[in-house]
Write a structure and sequence with these properties.
Layout (H helix, E strand, L loop, with lengths): L1 E5 L2 E6 L1 H10 L1 E8 L2 E10 L6 E5 L2 E7 H4 L9 E7 L5 E8 L23
Parallel strand pairs: 2-8, 4-6
Antiparallel strand pairs: 1-2, 3-4, 5-6, 7-8
Length: 122
């Protein structure tokens, strides 16, 4: 699972096995250690929401994906889900949860678990 944060925009990208695990178990997470602190990022299927949303508590970002939308995501061609959350102070947070495609250029990272890039077929 990869995350990209830019200003008030958060994007999570999941490999095939991570999407399968999320759909089958309802929760996935990764951790990054900063000496004595740990930053956790997670995705959870939830029954009590109709839209993608996020929480940040105890050094953890959790994307909550409605179970009605995500339970069968691994069986579909749907690339992802997006939502913009508006705050009372007129700010907003853009969320994107998507399947991770292989890059079209050469990368040093292992991409064997990524989804095939549709642009590679053109």
């Amino acid at each position: 699972m990869k995350i990209r944060i830019l200003g008030n925009s958060v994007r999570f990208r999941l490999t095939r096995s991570e999407v399968n695990s999320l759909c089958n178990k309802g929760y996935i997470e990764n951790k990054t250690n900063f000496d004595t602190n740990v930053f956790t990022y997670a995705v959870r299927l939830v029954s009590d929401s109709e839209k993608l949303n996020a929480k940040f508590m105890d050094n953890t970002i959790t994307l909550n994906l409605p179970k009605a939308l995500g339970a069968n995501w691994h069986k579909t061609e749907q690339v992802g889900f997006s939502e913009t959350i508006s705050f009372m102070n007129n700010g907003s947070l853009s969320l994107l949860l998507e399947k991770d495609f292989t890059c079209l250029d050469e990368r040093a990272e292992d991409q064997s678990d990524n989804y095939p890039n549709p642009k590679a077929l053109l």
